[in-house]
Amino acid sequence: MAYNIGVLGLGTVGAGTVDILQNPEGRHPLLGELNLYRVGVRDVNKPRNVQLSPELLTTDLEAIVTDEAVDIVVELIGGLEPARSLILQAIAHGKHVVTANKAVISRYGEEIFEAANAAGVYVMLEAAVGGGIPVIKPLKEALGVNRIQSVIGIINGTTNYILSRMQAEGSDFGDVLADAQSLGYAEADPTADVDGLDAADKMAILAALAFGGRIKREEIFCDGIRHVSAADISYAEKLGFRIKLLAIASRETPQTETDRLQIRVHPTLVPHSHPLASVNGVYNAILVEGDPLGPVMFYGQGAGAGPTASAVVSDIVSIGAILKTETEPVPHPLLSCPHQHYCTLTPIEEINTRFYVRLMAQDVPKVIGHLGMAFGDRGVSLESVVQIGFHEGLAEIVIVTHETPEGSFRDALEDVKKLDAIASIPSTIRVLS
Ligand SMILES: NC(=O)C1=CN([C@@H]2O[C@H](COP(=O)(O)OP(=O)(O)OC[C@H]3O[C@@H](n4cnc5c(N)ncnc54)[C@H](OP(=O)(O)O)[C@@H]3O)[C@@H](O)[C@H]2O)C=CC1
Ligand SMILES: N[C@@H](CC=O)C(=O)O
Ligand code: NA
């Protein structure tokens, strides 16, 4: 029996997906039962990276998601609309859906999964987080019996590629971003990558699976890498850290009655000895800490045509396997999404973090003492204070704090700004505890 696949989108991931579907030899035998039936695009005349017979291509995406012959719709157009409406239309027409679209799932997951559960169809999204790395399915299945304490990840390939190149070559941010775009890693609007929004979308999905409740995407604190300079990368290195864009989700400890979660995305100083410090380029890694399993890390290519398509097609094959064995598929308790409640997130001001601060100060007596007092008065204790340079008559000072509630740190920083000797504070970056 063959299953008809309707693919929406033939860009980086769409072309990678079609390439696997057209070349099943040496792969899982079920691939031989998948029939590429239609491919929806914006422009049928655009040159493509894959060879397709022209009659498969159409610009009428609605016709694909409503076509009786289509069994599985694969949404790879990206963006919020028309992706959301097409997914919902496909579900309403009884199609199973595979998507790589974390933006849609993290914002409209409730609507989409409720519709899918009611219609008795699957919505699979392995490609949406960590590209080709299997992480969604392991969280649903193999790790399902663990009580998850934390999920920490490098889950945006574009920013990791940029930071790694800046680190290795001292390259300029803008040039490296252009390379990430040409390699197909970046989103259509790379703002989503650079400003941490893509990583926050992905962490909303991971946290929902790990902690068993829905996450309000807009409540996730998110800061991107625009303000990370070559100087900070170099000073961090000297202090024994790499700068990485981390997405962090953890259960608050000690646990309160509300059982709050701490979820945030921001550039972070990661100690050289930490396993995430050596994850470079387009590689992603997700470190999960569970009880009783302990730490487990998922590592691989988080973006790009082939790796992402690997996850897309494995989801298609999983659905194909279900269709083969069940005449009337009912939501499988391990593969469907049964969450009903929303998790409560801790406001960023209440989260305890260490901070790296770089300041420019007049080189006058007592300046270090005044800095120590300003932080100390707000209860922020300092782990190290180092004068690292001297530019245009100003001393460049780097401070690393001990763990402190972010709100206290922000108050202290306001006081520091008012000190006569402080000319500017070019950067503050959180440090992994
Ligand atoms: N690139 C990557 O490495 C990864 C991407 N993803 C996700 O995969 C999805 C696709 O990304 P990617 O392949 O990079 O995107 P691209 O921009 O490369 O491709 C998008 C495709 O969708 C088509 N398309 C877009 N809008 C419409 C529309 N309104 N009507 C018809 N066709 C449309 C485009 O058509 P046309 O070609 O004619 O312009 C194009 O073929 C996104 O959700 C992205 O977040 C997930 C993991 C990794
Ligand atoms: N733009 C994303 C693509 C994969 O999700 C990234 O860079 O990680
Ligand atoms: Na994945």
Automatic annotation (TrEMBL):
NCBIfam families assigned: PRK06349.1 (NF004976)
Residues annotated as domain ACT: 356-430
Required cofactor(s): a metal cation
Pathway the protein takes part in: Amino-acid biosynthesis; L-methionine biosynthesis via de novo pathway; L-homoserine from L-aspartate: step 3/3; Amino-acid biosynthesis; L-threonine biosynthesis; L-threonine from L-aspartate: step 3/5
Catalytic reactions on record: L-homoserine + NADP(+) = L-aspartate 4-semialdehyde + NADPH + H(+)
CDD domains (UniProt xref): ACT_HSDH-Hom
Annotated EC: 1.1.1.3
Name this protein carries in UniProt: Homoserine dehydrogenase
Family affiliation: Belongs to the homoserine dehydrogenase family.
Entries under Gene3D superfamilies matching the protein: 3.30.70.260, Dihydrodipicolinate Reductase, domain 2, NAD(P)-binding Rossmann-like Domain
Highest taxon of source: Bacteria
Keyword field: Amino-acid biosynthesis, Methionine biosynthesis, NADP, Oxidoreductase, Threonine biosynthesis
Any Pfam family: NAD_binding_3
